[in-house]
Amino acid sequence: MRDMILLILISVLFGNSVLEARVGASATGAVLPQETTKKPTVQERIMEIPPGTMVEVRLMDKHKVRGRLGEVTNEGFSLQTAQGNKVETQKIAFTEVKTLRKVEGETTGKKFSRGVIYGLAGIGVLMVILIIWAASRSD
User: Alpha-carbon distance 101 to 55, whole Å?
Assistant: First the structure.
């Protein structure tokens, strides 16, 4: 029994010292090793995106290129862009990329269906308001 109490006391004392170290480190602005987060590089971000995804790439020379992500190599990646009726494949080096983002393209069909849903919801709300108003007037 005495050993059990001793083990509990040691764990409480040890647990508090670890907690105090964490609180003390965060209060002074120090960063603990396991809490550091590293921003992913352009190459790491591109590797996470599946091929065929629409992306927008801003290059170091301030040009913007939009297209589908193609093959990714150690030096760069290919981007398939539409120029009129032709599809061109551009090779872009990772060192040329300033920013990269996925393009969440919304097709005309999605826009139309969302408009229809919002319109029907608005008509439904208006009907409920009219029914409530008519019921309150008849009393």
Answer: 6
Q: Nearest 5°: CA angle at 108, between 107 and 113?
A: 105
Q: Which residues contact 96 (CB under 8 A, 6 or more apart)?
A: 59, 60, 61, 76
* Residues 45-85: tens digit of each pLDDT: 888 888 888 899 999 998 999 999 999 888 899 999 888 88
Each residue's pLDDT tens digit, 12-41: 656 555 545 555 555 555 555 555 678 888
- Exposure string over 69-83, b if 16+ CB within 10 A, otherwise e: beeeeeebbbbbeee
E runs forming strands in the chain: 54-59, 64-72, 76-83, 86-93, 97-102
User: Collapsing DSSP states into helix, strand and coil, what is residue 58?
Assistant: strand
> Which of 4-8, 36-40, 98-102 bottoms out in mean pLDDT, i.e. has the lowest?
4-8
